[in-house]
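Example record used in the benchmark description.
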Amino acid sequence: MRFDILTIFPEMFSGYFQESIIQRAVAGKLLDIRVHDLRRWAAGKHRKVDDKPYGGGPGMVMQVEPFYEALKTLKAGAKGDRVILMSAKGKPFSQKEARRLAKYKRLVLLCGRYEGVDERVARHLADEELSIGPYVLTGGELPAMVVVDAVARMVPGVVGKAASIAEESHSEEGVTEYPQYTRPEIFTPKKGKVWRVPKILLSGDHAKVAVWRRSKMKRS
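Model output (structure tokens):
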């Protein structure tokens, strides 16, 4: 699966995408992640991508032209593509949305900055807007990383076993995963304190363990 990310801060992505599962998936050609500097498509000597908002008001607004030229160069909009603007006013991102987006061949993620993005980007260039939560961030870069990470996990082969994904939190809408434990069986952080693994997990009775785990799942 391919991801194209448009941002004015491409360096922000290098550290995260060069580590752990994402890095291995890229090396194994399961994922193709390309980060593009939006200023490449900005006009003028200073490669300016923003301007004052019409009607007045604080801050600067990112212009429509650089996004338009970039998407034209990237030939975004072909069958199997989905162009997404990361936006605080977008649809809430969820595990369900991650599964839906994983069905596309390519996601093109547009990262805004400053006071926002010219509304014509949302109306005419993006297929949808997504938000990762009811709060405002300084830009769309962190939300883009979140979307790439969550969607990438849905791509076959990126995460080791399909069963591990099926049992994760939110694999069912509104359901969080059961508690997990590992060695040591007994942990004593300080005198008088003993933290134990639940006995049922040590029983070897897989049927009873399954019932216990199901009972511990939380539903919102």
